[in-house]
Each structure stands twice: as C-alpha cells, then as structure tokens.
C-alpha cells in the first residue's frame, strides 16, 4: 500500500454500533460505495459516518478492511467458474480461501449483505462462491429420487437461511409462481414429476 500520496491518507469511519476505525483511503476505495463517495476528494478531514447502514457494525467493517487490504496486496481474487467444487480452496488463491473459510454461516451471510451494501464486488464474489459451495455440500448429503432431492434441497436451503414461511398463503404462492413462471420453467422448479 505504499506509493502515491493517496495511499497514505486516512479516513475515520463511524459504524452503526458506534465503532470507529482509521482506514487508509486506498483500502476504502476497494468498495465502490467509498470509491464513488471519495471520487475527486482532495482531503478527508471529517469522519465518514456509515451508521445509516444498519448492517455495517465495527466487526463487519473490520472484515471489509481486512479483505480490502488483501485485494490491494494480491489483486482481486480470481474465482474459477462454474463453481462445482467441494472447497473454496479449489476456487481461488489460498490467501482468499483462508479469509472466506473462517466465517460461520451467520457471519458469512451477514458479511455478504455488507459487501453488497458497500458495493465491494471482489468480496461479494468471494463470499458468494463460499456460500455456493456450502449449498452444494447440502445437496451432496441428500438421498432419494431427483424429485425427493429437489424437495429436500429446498427444505435444507430454507433451514440454512432461516426462511420459516416462504409464502403468506396459497394465493400468495400461486401469484408468485405466476409472476415468475419463466424462472420456474428455466430452472425446472415446477411441482410436476416430468
């Protein structure tokens, strides 16, 4: 992170939980939100208040900063696609795999939302790949016919994301399926057995 004068400038970040962090501007600019906000700014004398972002706690912002420093040192993670792997270590460089692999399901989901809100695309892609691998592992543990596996997968994913009631009523389910008929056909999500 050495080099231009811009790399040495610091900003104070205030988070929703009252936390404060001093972060190099170059590190902040890995996130599109900060990059857009700081575009053309000659100096940052005030603290950047991101407390309106309810998801961005000090802990989550520390993870964003940690990742952003890695992204500057090693460039953005190269995520191989499609993601049909059993481990994040098969998808990207070890330094990024170690970062993504340290989060439990709750923190992973929370950090994905934070990365999305701050428009940190490299972090969002890395964590989404980790989530995809976790979902594939859920599918790999299932037994039965393809139809039974599909039903089990849906239930496991609902449990994983703590979705208790996907539809308010049978009418709501019909309306949503009708509005998204193309997606149901494309991904063969209809309830019929063909």
From TrEMBL:
InterPro entries: SKP1/BTB/POZ_sf. Keywords: Coiled coil. Gene3D superfamilies: Potassium Channel Kv1.1, Chain A. Residues 128-155 form a coiled coil. It comes from the Eukaryota. This is Uncharacterized protein. It comes from Stylonychia lemnae. The lineage of its organism: Eukaryota, Sar, Alveolata, Ciliophora, Intramacronucleata. The gene is Contig4997.g224.
């Amino acid at each position: 992170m050495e080099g231009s004068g811009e790399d040495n400038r610091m900003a104070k970040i205030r988070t929703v939980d009252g936390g404060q962090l001093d972060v190099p501007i170059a590190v902040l600019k890995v996130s599109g939100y900060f990059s857009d906000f700081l575009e053309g700014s000659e100096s940052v004398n005030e603290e950047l208040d991101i407390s309106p972002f309810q998801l961005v706690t000090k802990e989550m912002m520390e993870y964003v900063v940690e990742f952003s420093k890695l992204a500057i040192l090693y460039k953005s993670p190269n995520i191989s696609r499609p993601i049909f792997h059993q481990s994040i270590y098969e998808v990207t460089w070890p330094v990024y795999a170690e970062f993504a692999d340290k989060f439990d399901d709750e923190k992973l989901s929370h950090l994905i939302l934070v990365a999305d809100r701050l428009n940190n695309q490299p972090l969002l892609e890395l964590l989404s790949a980790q989530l995809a691998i976790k979902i594939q592992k859920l599918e790999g543990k299932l037994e039965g016919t393809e139809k039974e596996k599909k039903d089990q997968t849906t239930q496991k994913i609902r449990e994983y994301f703590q979705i208790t009631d996907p539809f308010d009523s049978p009418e709501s389910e019909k309306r949503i399926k009708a509005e998204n008929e193309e997606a149901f056909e494309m991904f063969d999500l209809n309830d019929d057995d063909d």
